[in-house]
Amino acid sequence: MSFRAAFILALLLGGAPQAALAQAPASSSPAAAAHAVTAGQQAMVEALIAAINAGGGEALENWIQTHAILKPTKGADSWRDWFGRISRTSGGLVLERIDPPMASRELRVWVGTVNGDQHRRFGLFADPAGSDRADDFVIAVWPTSYSGTLVRQPADEAVLAALVRDRVAFGAGLDEFSGVALLADRERPVGVAVAGMADVGRSLPNTGTTRFHIGSMGKMFTAVAIARLVEDGRLRFDTRLIDVLPDYPDRAAAEAITIAQLMSHTSGISLPYVEPTAATDRDPDRVSDSLAEIAAAPLAFAPGSQARYSNEGYTVLGAVIEALTGDSYYDVIQREVFDRAGMTETAFDRPGPLAANTAQGYRYGADDALGVMPRESNAPFLLDRGGPSGGAYSTTTDMTRFLNAFRDGRLVSPAVVEALLTAEPNGQNRYGKGFTIIPVRERRMVGHSGGGPNSGINTDAMIVWETGWSYAVLGNYDAPAAQVVAGALLAAAVAQPASAP
Question: Which of 182, 248, 294, 380 could form a disulfide with 254 if both were Cys (CB 3.0 to 4.6 A apart)?
Fold first, then answer.
């Protein structure tokens, strides 16, 4: 189960988010008593800690062979890479406790680190057969559970504004959140709170109008641009890639892949993530130059047979946009999305010195999986201009403007909007075509998040489809810092009634 899915599930159940549940002692967790940690699972965790403390290497290899259930999405290289990072940076781990697995099968392993004297956790997903093996893991620096009171019922605006201020102040006080949070009724701000520094080196604090790198939120922009072409009759969601990009280097793949599959992460195009170390030589004003590299990799699976999150699939969609319009992807997004939605502060900035009023991201280093060392600038991580898979800079105000324009039919017609909010066969859970759709208490939350661990980027923005209440939380720390703050705003937004038009 993804962080977002577990987070929303907790809200649906009226409990704390996954990250918050993990902060409590095992005895206070409502589901902890259901599945006790077995002796085999305890021994598996202890052996992993011993392998990490032995410096990784042969000890870690032996652990992987004995305890890891390998699969295409999480092979030996992934286990070796992530736990090797912990071995290199933690200085050693002390096992503090193991929280029993709940519905997700996740063993939450709490450790103390020698370097930094931090208390951190990682998750191992236990074999359903109950053996001493695990088939997945999750590693992130999880924020502290919010100790305040959430709002889960209709409330006065003063109460909602106080919630936003208190939630942001709580995270900022622990240096776990830096950014801006906005709760809005349609496009009218109800609560705004700001914390942290936009640029430590220049002593510039974040403000309510600071621009942030929004990561994968930009997939929504690409989806709207594609939808505009569908509405104009120049494209269909079931159009094959070969019919719009006849020169796509992998012809067999292009004959099998549809536009809808690219949008829903079911195309089979999926390259392993490799952190960039140098800028590419592609034209910064066009995205089509990336196709050769993408097409050179074999498909990860038959198109339409399963789902795997794919930035590369959205790059291909950007090339489709350029091919059908004759314009650069960036010009199309400016004209068809930003201008139409009134997003005056949003743009795909070029690499280099940051534009005025733009936040620098701060991340734990690429090797620092548990966040034991001081954060560092993410400037070396952002070497190319953003594009169809994400990477624009925006503000909380602009993101709520976008969500409202999308909901109100100002970007594409309601019929096409509903097509974007409809899942594809074998698609990702709670995902349509470029948008996350989460049912919460008989309402739909629609939007997208961005960023990830060790990126200095984390953002989340969603709108309650039935009422127009929305939120945007943009931050310049690693995920899930902003998404955890956003959880409090989500719970409040979904509980509010629609106001008079």
Answer: 248
